[in-house]
């Protein structure tokens, strides 16, 4: 249980806040909060911060509409840094980028970024429906998606029995792609399945 009294504020009355996407795990922003901002966050369920440049309380997204619903607040071991797990209503960065960390080695994809990127691509294909898209073809034919999931599952099982580790990886990736499309066709995501897994822990 989060206890605001355990926060260790710095000499300026601030604590660093790492803001992380609840669903994808992507780090969105590094910001700061004072006791008032933390209190408002707990009270409203939406992220409030302290703007060091404007020297005022800052309701994240109040002007742009890109608010951030807080799902969990966590403290680090020393109590001098806060992790806010949020569901963003839009881009986190004032530039319009999804995350403030969009400069530097952005072409080097970390493993945990693959599935969220896939789901964003699927959402775009579903909305834009580009001609000749294999994803759109699958989305338009739910029975075919089911057949492909079964086919790819058999292929990864066969690869595990008879083929190299690289082939297992490739076939597993095919399963994940087709499963994500199947879920998208039902208005669901891999994150929804992950919630079920969390409920089965232990």
UniProtKB/TrEMBL annotation:
InterPro entries: His_synth_HisIE, HisE, PRA-CH, PRib-ATP_PPHydrolase-like, PRib_AMP_CycHydrolase_dom, PRib_AMP_CycHydrolase_sf. In the C-terminal section; belongs to the PRA-PH family. In the N-terminal section; belongs to the PRA-CH family. SUPFAM superfamilies: all-alpha NTP pyrophosphatases, HisI-like. This is Histidine biosynthesis bifunctional protein HisIE. Keywords: Amino-acid biosynthesis, ATP-binding, Cytoplasm, Histidine biosynthesis, Hydrolase, Multifunctional enzyme, Nucleotide-binding. One of its GO terms (molecular function) is phosphoribosyl-ATP diphosphatase activity. Residues 1-114 are annotated as: Phosphoribosyl-AMP cyclohydrolase. HAMAP family: HisI, HisIE. It catalyses: 1-(5-phospho-beta-D-ribosyl)-ATP + H2O = 1-(5-phospho-beta-D-ribosyl)-5'-AMP + diphosphate + H(+); 1-(5-phospho-beta-D-ribosyl)-5'-AMP + H2O = 1-(5-phospho-beta-D-ribosyl)-5-[(5-phospho-beta-D-ribosylamino)methylideneamino]imidazole-4-carboxamide. It comes from uncultured Solirubrobacteraceae bacterium. The keyword Kinase does not apply. It is found in: Cytoplasm. Residues 115-202 are annotated as: Phosphoribosyl-ATP pyrophosphohydrolase. It comes from the Bacteria. CDD domains: NTP-PPase_HisIE_like (cd11534). Pathway: Amino-acid biosynthesis; L-histidine biosynthesis; L-histidine from 5-phospho-alpha-D-ribose 1-diphosphate: step 2/9; Amino-acid biosynthesis; L-histidine biosynthesis; L-histidine from 5-phospho-alpha-D-ribose 1-diphosphate: step 3/9. Pfam families: PRA-CH, PRA-PH. One of its GO terms (biological process) is L-histidine biosynthetic process. Gene3D superfamilies: MazG-like (1.10.287.1080), Phosphoribosyl-AMP cyclohydrolase (3.10.20.810). Residues 30-102 form the Phosphoribosyl-AMP cyclohydrolase domain. GO terms for cellular component: cytoplasm. Coiled coil: none annotated. The gene is hisI. Its EC number is 3.5.4.19, 3.6.1.31.
